[in-house]
Amino acid sequence: MADPIESADTIDVQALGHRLYDLALVRSGDEPLLDPAGQPIKWLLDSRAALLRNDMFREVGRVLGQRLREQGITQVVGYGYGSFGLVGAVLGAAGDDYPIHGGFLREGRKEHGRQRLLEGPIDPSEPIVLVDDILNSGQSALKSVSRLSAEGYEVYGVLTLFHFTWSGGRSRLASLGLWVSSLLDLNLRSA
């Protein structure tokens, strides 16, 4: 039986980004929304809900996996809750001809068990790409790059679903020589 989802080479990435945006957009008229400081906001993007749809999970995984393949990257590390579905989608889309390994960066080293900061079969001798749902200011990505570098890992770049162009995150990361790629650049402040 043929797979009903297109290959990564034939997926219209712009259209996929817009479908993902439409599914992820939550407006304050639908439910109360707060920013990290507890102040009301008018909208937010919840890509986790969108990625829990089978069709989006597979298509996003294929496109992100293809971008990793084009860069010669075989390891992804998620940081933050928004990355859980992305790491899974990339790993699920990887084929036997181009296996990709994944991991998750903890907020702090686990105090018991194996006491790891980074979970997963990540080889420190190979470069990694960080994945997350949204690139805004780049501060959380910079923190993750710093923590991984201190542990001896080489971070090649950052791959996200959405990039808020008004916050300068891409330029901050690129100034460190990091490759930065997003599925969809957003240059609006209100949805």
Largest sheet: 6 strands, mixed
Name the average pLDDT. 88
Strand content: 15-25%
Q: What is the gyration radius calculated from CA atoms?
A: 17 Å
Q: Helix share of residues?
A: 25-40%
CATH architecture descriptor of the domain at 57-186: 3-Layer(aba) Sandwich
How many DSSP-defined strands? 8
Helical segment tally? 6
CATH fold descriptor of the domain at 57-186 = Rossmann fold
Order of adjacent strands in the largest pleated sheet = 5-4-3-6-7-8
Span between N and C termini?
40 Å
Class computed from helices, strands and strand pairing = alpha/beta
| CATH class bucket of the domain at 57-186 | Alpha Beta
**What spatial form do the alpha-carbon principal axes imply?**
globular
* Uncertain residue segments: 1-7
> H/E series, N to C?
HEEHHEHEEEHEHE
Question: How would the blueprint of this fold be written?
Answer:
Elements: H1 13-24, E1 25-27, E2 43-45, H2 47-51, H3 54-71, E3 75-79, H4 84-93, E4 101-105, E5 118-119, E6 128-135, H5 139-150, E7 155-164, H6 169-174, E8 179-186
Parallel strand pairs: 3-4, 3-6, 6-7, 7-8
Antiparallel strand pairs: 1-2, 4-5
